[in-house]
Amino acid sequence: MTMTESEVLDLLQKVGAFRSGHFVFTSGRHSDSYVNKDALYPYTHDTSHLCKAMAERFAKKGIEVVVGPAIGAAILSQWVAYHLTDMRGEEVYGAYADKDGQGGFILKRGYDQIVKGKRVLVVEDLTTTGGSIKKVVETVRAAGGNVVGAIAIVNRGGVTKEQVGNPDEFQSLVNLHLESWETADCELCKKGIPVNTDIGHGREFAAQKLA
């Protein structure tokens, strides 16, 4: 039976993926809440459980390859492909897109040939703007892959199908709406509450303030 949103949230809470404090997102916006996606990956059974739920959403879509952006979603692509292979009774490949050093992604290691002409599912752990998923969708398409779907564990920013490159289908296991602010409007900054420099992009923000 497919996991409910509350079950997904309970699992993320259990592994310590939810944090409160003062955080800086990849987008540069600030928030008093943060989803620390990296807290999930040491828990292999829980990661597998979430990936099975992702696979179930696309079990009847004829997926042949699963691709995720490095680093974290490379783990997801393996597990989702594993569960799809079990469900379909035929090999579904797991691959990942490397960062290209210029803000985009590239399919290396022969993975461009693996996706060519195949029906591809793009997976991600957390999306706020849809930017990373969109770049991977475009990279897969450029390599000749047919992106039939994309899915994230957490959709934090109300991201739409159009924002992730308009695949046939875009889903998430849970939708969260965490309030966030531009730096100039951040009440936490005005109160002098230091940003968390251990997770998120607080360290870069703090370094810029000192520069």
Level-2 CATH architecture: 3-Layer(aba) Sandwich
Percent strand: 15-25%
Number of strands: 8
Task: Estimate nothing, just give the exact number of structural domains.
Answer: 1
Distance from N terminus to C terminus (CA atoms, Å) equals 52 Å
Rg estimate, integer Å:
17 Å
Mean pLDDT: 93
Level-1 CATH class name? Alpha Beta
**Parts with pLDDT < 50 across at least 5 consecutive residues:** none
Say what the CATH topology is: Rossmann fold
Summary of the model, kept short:
The chain has 211 residues and is an alpha/beta fold. Helix content is 34%, strand content 25%.
Walk me through this protein's architecture.
This protein has 211 residues and is an alpha/beta fold. It has one domain (5-210): Rossmann fold, CATH 3.40.50.2020. Helices cover 34% and strands 25% of the residues. It is built from 7 helices and 8 strands; from the N terminus they run H-E-E-H-E-H-E-E-H-E-H-E-E-H-H. The protein has helices spanning 5-14, 44-57, 72-88, 111-115, 131-142, 187-190, 202-210; strands spanning 18-24, 30-35, 65-69, 93-99, 105-106, 119-127, 146-155, 170-175. The strands form 2 sheets. Strands 5-4-3-6-7-8 form a 6-stranded mixed sheet, sandwiched between helices. A two-stranded antiparallel ribbon has the order 1-2. Strand 1 and strand 2 (30-35) form a beta hairpin. Helix 2 (44-57) packs across helix 3 (72-88). The longest helix has 17 residues, at 72-88.
